[in-house]
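Sample entry (363 residues):
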Amino acid sequence: MSLRVSAGIRERGVDFDLEVTTGEVVAILGPNGAGKSSLLSMISGALRPDTGQIVLDGRALVDVERDLWVPAYRRGVVMLAQQALLFPHLSAVANVAFGPRSRGIGRKPAQELAMKWLADVDAAEFADRRPAQLSGGQAQRIAIARALAADPALLLLDEPMAALDVEVAPALRQLLRKVLRDNGRTALLVTHDLIDALALADRVVVIENGRIVENGVAKTVLSQPRSSFAAKIAGINLISGTVEGHGIISAPGQRVQGVLDPGCVERQLGVAVFRPSAVSIHLALPTGSPRNHLPAIITDLEPQSDLVRVGAMVTGSELALHATVTAEAVADLDLAPGKAVYYAVKATEVTIFPAAGESARVN
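Predicted structure, serialized as tokens:
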């Protein structure tokens, strides 16, 4: 089922324009308070937008101009949240059969359908158990079966693995991938976990300040981020500024040279993106091939296997940067929080993109 959202809520400062094709799984990423939950709530019917339309498979669910509002129970939209929220007084099979029974399917066919879905999520052995007798992972499997047994036109997944133990989440992630792919489900997945986006989604949408600022396949968004949030989850350095020549000028007055993306426009806002592994750290202003030298103060050191991730703030700004260096380099340079250094990166390791969303604000 295809989805078209062009709607907003003025009071919440959200305004979305999003299309999802039939059978597509789209991951929704963004910082807390960006508007992710508002988007899902408008689609599910929990929140009423005051502008625009929401159309599911050619059927209008919301049309503000026509004063059209389809209530949640008639939308064919199912939400799967962090908590399983199973009916405590019903067995697992009765929980899963609830959706089919609500659609008018007889008791026996609904029971058979429920057992099929329990088998599909590897939970048939828990059919007779009540929620209090299930672990978190088992309950979430039942919740997935219940959601799919309702045969939704659209499945909304609101961080479905956030409340699970790290040992349980990988198996459930694999399960979700299987049931979504095998059944060609159209779904929106809100998550803070990069692995969820990479494993489950066809496409990634990044939301900042109530707007969609990035939209594309996960590999592109995460390897060429244009928003501060996408850069953060990808572990990539991002500096905002004004495009000038072959680089940008940031608010602290630092010039960062790089390779310009064709979409960059002179004197317009842009972002310089480079990996922590491309950064070298110096105690004095370096000379030689690196063309970008950023004075900084070390803030933290984080061991990562045989390397160390060194965080710093650019002097005179609130711009955070990271470098990944060897433990030997940390010892040789005597790096520690509060130490003044220079972060150096070659221009060939820096790519300049047009800015998007939050990144469009010069730091």
